[in-house]
Amino acid sequence: MKIVVIGGTGLIGSKLVNKLRQLDHIVIPASPDSGVNTITGEGLNEVLKNADVVVDVSNSPSFEDRAVLEFFQTSTMNLLTAASSARVKHYVALSVVGADRLPGSGYLRAKMTQEELIRGSGIPYSLLRSTQFFEFAGRIAQAATNGNEVHIPTGGIQPIASDETVAALADVVIDQPLNAIAEVGGPVVMPMAEFIRYYLNATEDSRQLIADKHAVYFGVELDDTSLVTGKNARIGKIKYEDWFNTQLAKA
Length: 251
Ligand SMILES: NC(=O)c1ccc[n+]([C@@H]2O[C@H](COP(=O)([O-])OP(=O)(O)OC[C@H]3O[C@@H](n4cnc5c(N)ncnc54)[C@H](OP(=O)(O)O)[C@@H]3O)[C@@H](O)[C@H]2O)c1
Description:
alpha/beta; 3-stranded mixed sheet; binds NADP nicotinamide-adenine-dinucleotide phosphate; 12 strands; globular; 251 residues
C-alpha cells in the first residue's frame, strides 16, 4: 500500500513511518519541511496522488485555545478535501482518550472538532484514541508551572510508551477501516501527581510538586476516570519506571 503519514517527522509520525516501512509498505512522511502543509494546502494534492491510506499524526505548534482549534479545523478540512479528491480508501487519525469527556479543555475541544469532521466526511475512516505518552510528562509539568511550583491534579492518568501507541496505530492503518473509534492506553492508572513526581525526581528537577485535587490539566479539572480507557481498549505492557530506566541506560 502507499501510505502517507501527515506529521511524519513528529514523535509518533517518525516511529510510525519506520514501523510501516518494516512491513514493506510504501510510506511517505509529509510535513512542512518536505513541502506539505495542511494549513496552506501546499503539496497536499501531489503527495496524496495514488495513496491508499492517509494517517494524520500532525499536531498544532501552539496549544493556546484559539490557535489549536484553528489548526485542527483548517488542517483537517484541507486534508479531507484532498483525500476525497485523491479517492483515498482509508483515513486514519490519532486522537486522545477522554477527548469527548473534557469539553473544558481547548486542546481536547479541538481534537473533538477534528474527530467530528472526519466522521462526517464520508471517507472510510479509523480513529485511534491514545492516552498520554510517557514522553509528554515534561510538557505537562511545564504547562503547570508557576514560579518554582508545579501544580498537578490528583486525578487519574494511564500513560503509555509512545512505541506501544505506534504499534496499535500501525495495526489500525494496515487493517480495514473501522468507521469507529478504538482506544489504546498504558498498563497502569495512577494519580497524575505521582506520574509527574516520578518525572521530576528522575530528571533531578528542583521544582516543587504541589498535588492538588483542583489543579487543572490544560484548563480542566480531572476525576479518576477522565483520561482513562474504556473496557475494549488495547492495553500496553511497558511500565513507566521500566521505560524511564531504559531511556537513562540509552543516554
Ligand atoms: N502527547 C500525547 O500524550 C498525545 C496523546 C494522545 C494523542 N496525541 C496526538 O498524537 C498526535 C501526534 O503527536 P506528536 O506528539 O507525535 O506530535 P509532534 O511530535 O509535535 O509532531 C507534530 C508533527 O506535525 C507536523 N506539522 C505541524 N504543522 C503542520 C502542518 N501545517 N502541515 C503538516 N504537518 C504539520 C510537524 O512537522 P514539523 O516537524 O515540520 O514541525 C510534526 O511532524 C497529535 O495529533 C496529538 O493530538 C498525543
